[in-house]
Each structure stands twice: as structure tokens, then as C-alpha cells.
């Protein structure tokens, strides 16, 4: 799923979290982990969905400068 988050520092919405939990439950993959990324206007954040724990954890973030992503 793709949509925009025109925020300086993005954070997932309740709709995003619901969609992520549904993907963790219903998608067919060869791993127990799913990665979610949201890019804002100045930063991006990365979350890890753990199917076994049924939890979502923030695992990273970085700045977007001059068209480049900096960790």
C-alpha cells in the first residue's frame, strides 16, 4: 500500500497500524517479519512487524537532505 504522509517527522496513523496488523496476519511470505517505511518531508522512519509477537517496533529513522537519505 502506498500513500503520502506530508509531515516533517512522519508517524503511522491508526489506519496504517490496522493495515500493517492485517498484513502481518494475512500476507503469505517466507519470513515472520515485515518492514514498513514512512517517508515524511524531512525524515523517514522504519518499523518492523513481528508476526510471532504480534507487535510493531520502530527500528530506525533518518534525515532526508538534498534528495539523499541519511541514516
General description of the model:
- It is built from one helix and four strands.
- With 71 residues, the chain is α+β, with helices and mostly antiparallel strands.
- The longest helix has 13 residues, at 14-26.
Question: SSE order, as H and E?
Answer: HEEEE
Query: What is the helix content?
Result: 10-25%
Averaging pLDDT over every residue, what do you get?
A: 90
Strand numbers in spatial order across the main sheet:
1-2-3-4
Radius of gyration: 13 Å
The number of distinct β-strands equals 4
Distance between the termini: 24 Å
Strand % is 35-45%
Total helices: the number is 1
What does the overall shape look like? elongated
Topology, element by element:
Elements: H1 14-26, E1 33-39, E2 43-50, E3 55-65, E4 68-70
Antiparallel strand pairs: 1-2, 2-3, 3-4
What does this entry show, briefly?
The chain is an alpha+beta fold. It has one helix at 14-26, and strands at 33-39, 43-50, 55-65, 68-70.
Keywords summarizing the entry:
about 70 residues; alpha+beta; four-stranded antiparallel beta sheet; 1 helix; 4 strands
Amino acid at each position: 500500500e502506498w500513500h503520502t504522509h506530508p509531515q516533517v517527522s512522519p508517524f503511522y496513523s491508526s489506519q496504517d497500524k490496522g493495515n500493517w496488523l492485517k498484513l502481518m496476519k494475512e500476507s503469505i511470505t517466507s519470513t515472520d517479519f515485515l518492514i514498513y517505511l514512512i517517508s515524511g518531508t524531512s525524515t523517514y522512519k522504519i518499523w518492523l512487524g513481528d508476526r510471532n509477537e504480534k507487535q510493531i517496533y520502530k527500528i530506525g529513522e533518518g534525515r532526508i537532505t538534498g534528495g539523499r537519505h541519511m541514516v
